[in-house]
Description:
By secondary structure, this protein is an alpha+beta fold. Helices cover 30% and strands 23% of the residues. It has 18 helices and 23 strands. The strands form six sheets. The protein has a seven-stranded antiparallel β-sheet. Strands 5-6-7-8-12-13 form a six-stranded antiparallel β-sheet, covered by helices on one side. Strands 17-20-21-22 form a four-stranded parallel β-sheet, sandwiched between helices. The protein is globular. Catalyzes the formation of phosphoribosylamine from phosphoribosylpyrophosphate (PRPP) and glutamine.
Amino acid sequence: MAENSLGKTKSMYPKEECGVFAIYGHVNSAELTYYGLYALQHRGQESAGIASFDPCQTHFQVCRGMGLVSQVFDSHSLASLQGTMAIGHVRYSTTGSSTLLNAQPIVVSCSKGELALAHNGNIVNAVSIRRELENKGSIFQTTSDSEVILHLMAQPAQEDTFSSFLNALQRVKGAFSCVLMTTKGIFAARDPLGFRPLCLGKIENSYVVSSETCAFDLIHAEYMRDIEPGEVLFIGEEGLKSYFINVQTTKKAFCIFEYVYFARPDSNIAGLNVSKARIQMGKELAKLYPVDADIVVPVPDSGNYAALGYAEQSGIPYYPAFVRNHYIGRTFIQPTQLIRDFSVRIKLNLIQEAIRGKRVIVVDDSIVRGTTARARVVNLREAGAKEVHIRVSCPPHRYPCHYGIDFPNPKSLLANQLAIEDICKYLGADSLGYLSHEALIKACLEANTEFCTACFTGRYPVDFDPDFDKMILERRSFFEHVTK
């Protein structure tokens, strides 16, 4: 595994972004937030946090920690989070390092009172805004891009919390689906292009907000609707109040990779169930790249439904020959370079009897660096596979994402460096087929939105700093410090 200039280990996998959750008006707000975060754990496993507020008290209660939801919270910490409203966050660091300092919700006390923010997405002009605010005397406590929203709110130009939040959101560019808790209620906001999901639900007489609807299912909340791109929703004593950020564009750019990989299959986003979209991707893949074979094998878990679609369309039997170890996280760090595919083997093992002598179609959601895909082909050959045909349920990843997914430098993206036929040779497969851009859009036609496909096409809907990457704020802070 390579390391960047700050010594942080780079993973070979695409990384999740974050998940946010909020509830207003429930006596068990923190406990329900805990379960909501449990349902959103797939969106981030580095840290988790909950902030709650009891109107009988004067300050927010906060619990944050590194690790999974089950590792951060216990019965004692949940009991300390009293109140009738709460917000929560699970994080994978897409801007800023993975440290407790950057765990969310970020809680501050300023002229607008106490504020707590949980954010999913990337603010692509965070560096220039931060530099401007620091020149005015702002002191930042994290290297997360999310913090600039709170500093913009603390500026004296606006007197009330609502105006300051709205104006802050009009200043920032990029992707944000966020929840903001004040002592008066909870704001839920989504960027004008709608990069990241955010939805509204109800449990009893209380309102809930979540990155995905799967969290509603767990706590038996009723899904009401998606929060619209550009919408700022306030939940308070008088119920719901909806506002919209003043922007000139009507186009939308929902991240289509949510359907391919990130979102849970039991979630519904923009009117389309995620598992249904993946099954359709598999069917389109089978139409584009048919091949004579004996079994269709999914790469669990995000490849399961695409493989099912491929099997249904092709008539070739579906067989889950890879067995996943569910006790290993998505970002397992291999201990040495001597066992190059150790992280693959410890996460996925093969039922060799199902593979031996068979012509195998392997359906995966994506190939990023290609290291794991290549190791899987080796494992299949060792298990006695007669042929190995790889099918990928999205187009080749050729460009980095700047809106909340930690895709690596383009030089590390296999499809950016090699032609498809050369990728097939590198993987050691008998054939390779990627879903086309047109077929991917067709598979998601039922979604009531337009899509961002920049990681496939290089066409970015929002301009960004060309030097922008995950560690830009760490580099900026370090080099500005040592040169003064």
